[in-house]
Amino acid sequence: MILVVGQSGQVAQEAGRIDSVSLAGRATMDLNDPDGCAAHLHAVRPDAVVNAAAFTAVDRAEDAEAEAYRVNAEAPEAMARACAAMGIPFVQISTDYVFDGSGDAPRQPDAATGPLNAYGRSKLAGEEGVRAAGGPHVILRTSWVFGPTGANFVRSMLRLGADRRVLGVVDDQIGGPTPARDLAAASVAIARHLLLDPGTTGTYHFAGTPDVSWAGFAREIFAQAGLECRVDPIPTTAFPTPAKRPLNSRLDCTSTETAFGLPRPDWRAGLRTVLAQIGETT
Length: 282
Ligand SMILES: NC(=O)C1=CN([C@@H]2O[C@H](COP(=O)(O)OP(=O)(O)OC[C@H]3O[C@@H](n4cnc5c(N)ncnc54)[C@H](OP(=O)(O)O)[C@@H]3O)[C@@H](O)[C@H]2O)C=CC1
Ligand SMILES: Cc1cn([C@H]2C[C@H](O)[C@@H](COP(=O)(O)OP(=O)(O)O[C@H]3O[C@@H](C)C(=O)[C@@H](O)[C@H]3O)O2)c(=O)[nH]c1=O
Fold this sequence. Notes:
Catalyzes the reduction of dTDP-6-deoxy-L-lyxo-4-hexulose to yield dTDP-L-rhamnose. Residues 2-277 form the RmlD-like substrate binding domain. Belongs to the dTDP-4-dehydrorhamnose reductase family. It is an enzyme of class 1 (oxidoreductase). By secondary structure, the chain is α/β, with parallel strands linked by helices. The chain has one domain: NAD(P)-binding Rossmann-like Domain (Rossmann fold), CATH 3.40.50.720. It contains ten helices and twelve strands. The protein has helices at 10-15, 34-44, 58-61, 65-86, 118-133, 153-163, 180-196, 214-225, 254-260, 267-281; strands at 2-5, 21-24, 48-51, 90-95, 137-142, 145-146, 166-170, 174-175, 178-179, 202-205, 212-213, 230-234. Strands 2-1-3-4-5-10 form a six-stranded parallel beta sheet, with helices on both faces. Strands 6-9 form a two-stranded parallel sheet. A two-stranded parallel sheet has the order 7-12. Helix 6 (153-163) packs across helix 8 (214-225). The longest helix has 22 residues, at 65-86. It starts with a strand and ends with a helix. The structure holds NADPH dihydro-nicotinamide-adenine-dinucleotide phosphate and dtdp-4-keto-L-rhamnose.
């Protein structure tokens, strides 16, 4: 059994549809209690663990950095140490926000990091803790995740686009939107791969293709959803937020395809599926 932590989150919800996956939520694993999380893993003894739980409120993390560190760094390290002690694989999902976003080249997994905000710093510390635990693991960085549930850009745009005829959206931050379903499938496949071949331990990237700006993403959301809302491209400076965000979120995902046979998913197809799922539930 593969245990996916973060039950109510967008990635875990999609992982829950996969055979032999169990989900753990806050009731049994509160990441504010790293030792309790480790003890729970020792008690459950799964075959592998995927950590899809995180403090993901990027702006709120600026004023809650201590909690973000506990949840995004201390708890993943404690869980990774428990897994290392049991000799089982641990997959930690991480983020493009560990990078500083300079230049316009896609980042390789071994490129220099330099987070611009508290969320990114806490996730980077989580990566370091998982590596230090020393067990078979994969750190899988992704970006701009969207699914039919939870807080994400697609749901924000559907909400705003229903009321507005024009929306200003930043056009100078570029990245790969990633369907939660594809990310869930990739994370579980990687956990299974690690069981057979722990030698693939390391840091990898997995993001949807093609790279696009938030404005371009918003345009495609409105087009596919049939919403008559015009997107006005604006610079980041015209949309001030508490947390600074990277301009270049492009991730080079080549090594993930080579090591695990997982190509970048086309986010436009994933968006069609998500809009259909949302339509069914409204
Ligand atoms: N969303 C995105 O755009 C991106 C996400 N990622 C990473 O991908 C992973 C999955 O993200 P995603 O599915 O979008 O996340 P969500 O924000 O949808 O879900 C986060 C999950 O973490 C849980 N959680 C938060 N704090 C705690 C806690 N103290 N104890 C237990 N559970 C907690 C939440 O539970 P509850 O509902 O109870 O709060 C929720 O289940 C995360 O590691 C994230 O950092 C990386 C790049 C982009
Ligand atoms: C709502 C809105 C946002 N924006 C901009 C602000 C921001 O630069 C960009 C995205 O805003 P959001 O707050 O939805 O996205 P944000 O929470 O920054 O998304 C990030 O979440 C974390 C968890 C990650 O790990 C990242 O990969 C990334 O997905 O869109 C506009 O330009 N216009 C708007 O009307």
